[in-house]
Amino acid sequence: MYFFLSAFASLFALAAILVWRQRAKIAPLVPPRVANRLPYFRHYAYSPLPGSSFADQAAGGLSSSTFDLEGNIFGGDSRVGLDEHGAAEVNDIMRREHVSFDQARVIRQQRYLARNGIDPSGMPLDSKAITRL
């Protein structure tokens, strides 16, 4: 009994080591639904979402005079569109706080900087950061 248990554990450990060593080759084969849950495979799981073109986003209110997506639309830009996560976050800020698209972009950027330890002026908040020589 213990022999089979130890043999099974050894084979499982060997398989885990082989998967870990070959993870760069295995990553593109992992389905995106599974890859999004695993930290290492997450960046291999990118796939553009349908309906996220510049035209769809401009029609959804993600455009202004200072951030004009129509230049991309009329210029025949081959990219898919704006980052889906960022666009959803800006839409959420616009809806919750009743602000314009430009104001929502500023709020999102300030929150992003604060999460990364940077004050709104762009200076790091870390006391050990070297800001001048």
List the helices and strands and how they pair.
Layout: H1 2-21, H2 23-26, H3 32-35, H4 54-59, H5 70-74, H6 84-97, H7 101-115
Helix pairs in contact: 6-7
| Total helical segments | 7
Distance between the termini: 68 Å
Name the shape in a single word.
extended
Largest sheet: none
Per DSSP, what share of the residues sits in E-state strands of 2 or more residues? under 5%
Low-confidence stretches: 45-50
Q: Supply Rg.
A: 23 Å
Which structural category fits the helices and strands? mainly alpha
Summarize the helix and strand pattern as letters.
HHHHHHH
> Roughly what percent helix?
40-55%
Count the domains.
2
Round the mean pLDDT to the nearest integer and report it: 76
SS elements, strand count: 0
Notes on the protein architecture:
InterPro entries: DUF2015 (IPR018559). Pfam families: DUF2015. Keywords: Signal. Belongs to the UPF0357 family. This protein is an all-alpha fold. It folds into two domains: 47 residues, no CATH class; 86 residues, no CATH class. 51% of the residues lie in helices and 0% in strands. It is built from seven helices and no strands. α6 packs across α7. The longest helix has 20 residues. About 5% of the residues have low confidence.
Features:
single chain; 133 residues; mainly alpha; 51% helix; DUF2015; signal
Quick summary:
Belongs to the UPF0357 family. The chain is mainly alpha-helical.
